[in-house]
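In line with agreed milestones, the collection of sequences with tokenised folds has grown. One record among many is set out beneath this paragraph:
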Amino acid sequence: MTSSEASVCVIIAAKNAADTISRAISSALRERQTAEVIVVDDGSSDRTAETSIAADDGTGRLKVLRLDTNKGPAFARNHAIANSTAPLIAILDADDFFLKGRFDRLLDNDDWDFVADNIVFIDARGDIAEPDVPYFAAEPRFLDLGGFIEGNISRRGKARGEIGFLKPVMRRNFLNAHGIRYKEELRLGEDYDLYARALVKGARYKILHGCGYGAVVRPDSLSGRHRTLDLKRLYEADRAILASPDLPREAKGWLRLHERHIRGRYELRNFLDLKAKAGLARAGLTALTNPASLPSIVGGVAADKLEARKSRHRPASDKPMPPRYLLPARVI
């Protein structure tokens, strides 16, 4: 499918996004390949739905769906998929926007089931206008399960830049053929889980290094406030994939690596929760009943203390960070 023939459904799950939703919708509607934009107001208490409707450009491509209660982004996206028909599906967060001409560059060939491009991260404390992005060499490559999971292992002391943040365009036919939808119990890592399951099923996941997606980074983002339960559900999602019959040995190895990583984060957070609720002695005794959790707890506590010590010696600054890119890219 070439860019001139592509039909894209842009899905925006939004909760209390009245301040940002207009730009997100407008950036999607200005793309000539956009066939429909489905906004799901996920139980907002502000004027997200009304603001979305006001952003309509009169072409009949915008549909706004309302949920009475908050169901989470996975449910909202599945609801949008069920109420759309375009053969390609693109996810856009309500805080974010597409750079002009994104789909022209992204949809130029048909050798993929998922195709993603680079992301520019913009600090919300500064100018969040659409940046003047350099022209990067596309340097197309295909992502396998190992590279995907390795790119989703976060590391302390480094800026977040996991490959799981990529926002690929997905072929509806592939999702339907393999019965793949977002797991609605997940409120953390729902994108990771869907992409991992797709790669296990043989999805051709293509990456281009040109930049077409703008993500606004806010210190109070939902992704930074996940619950302990969310971590538990995420490593359980890995276990569910691991339980799949006929899973290749190499895939099992990569999935176990991610499961251990997330489970370690859960064990540390669970320990800290219990410490805050019942005290250090109770938390320590509980941890001793599960010796396998001790390396994650001890290592995590030590790393937290070291980071806190470094932070005390780091000069405070409200100066916004300059734009940065998820993928290293070569300017041409």
